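for ur thesis appendix - Protein-arginine kinase. copy paste whatever u need, i formatted it the way the template wanted (i think)
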Amino acid sequence: MTLDKFLNKAISSWMSQDGPDSDIVLSSRIRLARNFKDYYFPTIYSPEQAKKIITEVTEIFNLIRNDHSQIDLLKMDELQPLQKRVLVEKHLISPNLADESSHGAVILTDDEDVSIMINEEDHIRIQCLFPGLQLKDALEKANGIDDLIEEHIHYAFSEKFGYLTSCPTNVGTGLRASVMVHLPGLILTQQMNRIIPAINQLGLVVRGIYGEGSEALGNIFQISNQMTLGKTEEDIVADLTSVVHQIIAQERSAREALIKTSNIQLEDRVYRSYGVLANSRIIESKEAAQCLSDVRLGIDTGYIKSVSKSILNELMILTQPGFLQQYAGGPLRPHERDIRRASLIRERLKLEEVNNG
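the 3d part is after this line
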């Protein structure tokens, strides 16, 4: 079934690839918010209009479909809550689309690097994901898709303000550029509390792993632009890229300082976390995320050579509540999830040791 291929595979094809600065930058994302000219915004449109929008977008993609990019449409009202949760955990849809949009849908490419949400906060949200720091490439791909759609429909656009959106903060370019970064060095050296306000002053925002209102599990943060009006798309991407390069330099410096001044303590932390993951019979998601962060730091700094980073990317998603229950075939109580999470991590690490033995 079409749905199964998106639900049963924890790691998207693009996630298994290395990108620039992938020791620190896990992914780059570009999201473009667009609305149709002749329809009310999703905040006040009718169910009939919502269905028409899905039909129009689907027809457009049927016209531009090609042999190199198989696409599929998933409608939110045809999915179970657990299935939607898995798509959120894979960053293929937003929590808002999963929880609040009864008339929503998503178009996904086979390798899951393109996700087009329909009837979320805006009529269309084009999302492109790349490994490592590749915001410019992600923007180029998103703009290409945007141009194809605009050949067939008229967007809500103002010569004075730019693209019109449901939320005023998105008016202008409608662009949200973001990077997912792993910053254990800055956390362990207690520098993040100083860095976050400095980033905010530059017109950027730092959020948790699933965006606004989410927690920074496993020392993973999202950094994105706040302003979409008064700057070009290229300027927004260039400014964010420049700041991220500075954060990368500071994170690498922090890691070098830890190795120089606290080498044995850092090595002990890494191997203790590996021991917890390899041997625990019960583990909560927060503890698992922290241990996975420590082990990834151990891989990046050379302490651990028998485990690949791609396995940790996979486990970060596999151990989320939605995926655990998807694999179990139904709902699990929190305690049952903690047992299954520990079992899954043990089995996956043991398989990795066998393959690299």
